[in-house]
Specification:
Layout lengths: L65 H16 L4 H22 L11 E5 L5 H14 L8 E4 L1 H4 L7 H12 L3 E5 L14 H13 L6 E6 L1 H10 L1 H6 L2 E5 L4 H14 L3 E2 L1 H15 L6 H21 L7 H5 E2 L1 H5 L2 H4 L8
Parallel strand pairs: 1-4, 1-5, 2-3, 3-4, 6-7
Bound molecules: adenosine-5'-diphosphate and magnesium ion.
Length: about 350
């Protein structure tokens, strides 16, 4: 029986010994394979596991929770790989803090229900929803909330069957694939077609609701899509809405943010914009942002792919030995080749 552990800075709390992969099993539904209910190894009993329990007058240094280190790494990665999104990053930190404190409370044997972690990510295309979902899964996994740091992404077609009796097995298959991780439902509102009252999407929603209400499953559902349609979807499905604890908004990026995103992506790929190319890309963005099917950071990535194509063609046609500088430099010519400059009416591919 463990007694009080006065905190020594840098001391590791005995209850959170790291296993080989850094995963700590202490959550209901967090074990695989599940031991029989009520057995000594039953993780559902571990919320009040006496062996881990700190004395009431103990002090718990949060920095001794090794999950905290992994969480900091994930948050640092999120900061480094995503420009802007201050609000999103703040919300992710809040969720991390909530779960860290929940873990600390468990160490003192304080009973509480497992916090709900189903979420909605609303925003336009290319605003970082999928990327943040991946980091969120890593973070929830580090904190022992889910069993695997994986996101299974689905859309309506993966869940809804064509014929009567096909929908439930399809949805259950998707749930099985996502089990223990995150189920990311992109453009979730397509599940709901009020104009067709016999639409099978309703069946999916009912199965999802059951799954989301099941305290013992270790599955987090994230609904993603455009803000306005998502609002309609949630108002029409209050049951779902009430199970979604965290609504996170992903705003469209400003011109300056898009330019910073471009420079980050260029650097990540070991390229470099010369000064003229930076100015050209800034002009490109101004035009591109007003065109149809503009998809924020995704459009930036696609535009850069096409810049690289033009650069390659340009370099091959030089018919001379190439330097390292040649190979990494994107010039304004590589940008101005875009159809956005050539024809104001033509719709470029996103
Ligand atoms: N803030 C950002 N900073 C840097 N890159 C970003 C940012 N937001 C999105 N991206 C990049 O843009 C692309 C599209 O992002 P994604 O997460 O798929 O958006 P969504 O799921 O909202 O459509 C990805 O390559 C992603 O890395
Ligand atoms: Mg996406």
């Amino acid at each position: 029986m463990t007694t009080a552990h006065p905190t020594i800075p840098g001391d590791r709390a005995p209850a959170v010994n790291r296993s080989g992969n850094g995963f700590q099993m202490h959550r209901p539904g967090a074990a695989n394979p599940a031991p029989p209910r009520g057995s000594a190894a039953d993780p559902s009993a571990s919320r009040d596991a006496a062996a881990d329990r700190l004395a009431d007058d103990a002090l718990l240094d949060l920095s001794t929770d090794i999950a905290g280190k992994d969480v900091e790494d994930t948050l640092a990665r999120l900061d480094a790989e995503l420009i802007g999104l201050a609000n999103v990053k703040r919300r992710v930190r809040e969720i991390a803090a909530l779960l860290l404190i929940d873990r600390a409370r468990q160490r003192f044997g304080l009973q509480a229900t497992r916090p709900t972690m189903h979420m909605s990510f609303t925003g336009g295309p290319g605003t970082g929803k999928t990327t943040v979902a991946l980091r969120m899964a890593e973070m929830l996994h580090s904190l022992g909330y889910i069993r695997k740091p994986k996101v299974h992404t689905v859309t309506r077609d993966d869940l809804v069957g064509q014929f009567i009796g096909h929908t439930a097995p399809k949805t259950k298959e998707a749930l099985a694939k996502a089990a223990g991780g995150v189920l990311f439902i992109d453009e979730a509102y397509y599940l709901f077609r009020p104009e067709n009252e016999r639409d099978y999407g309703q069946e999916v929603i009912e199965i999802l609701l059951q799954e989301m209400e099941n305290e013992r499953t270790s599955l987090v559902v994230i609904f993603a899509g455009y803000p306005d349609r998502m609002d309609t979807f949630f108002s029409a499905n209050p049951g779902l809405s009430s199970r979604v604890a965290h609504h996170i908004e992903f705003p469209d990026y400003t011109h300056d943010e898009l330019l910073a995103i471009a420079e980050l992506m260029v650097a990540q790929e070991n390229f470099h914009f010369d000064d003229a190319a930076t100015r050209a890309f800034s002009e490109y963005l101004e035009l591109r942002m007003t065109r149809p099917r503009f998809a924020n950071a995704r459009s930036v990535r696609n535009a850069l792919d096409r810049c690289r194509l033009r650069q390659a063609k340009r370099l091959v046609e030089l018919h001379r030995p190439l330097s390292r500088t040649d190979l990494i430099t994107l010039t304004d010519n590589d940008v101005y080749g875009s159809s956005v400059f050539a024809s104001p009416v033509e719709v470029p591919a996103t």
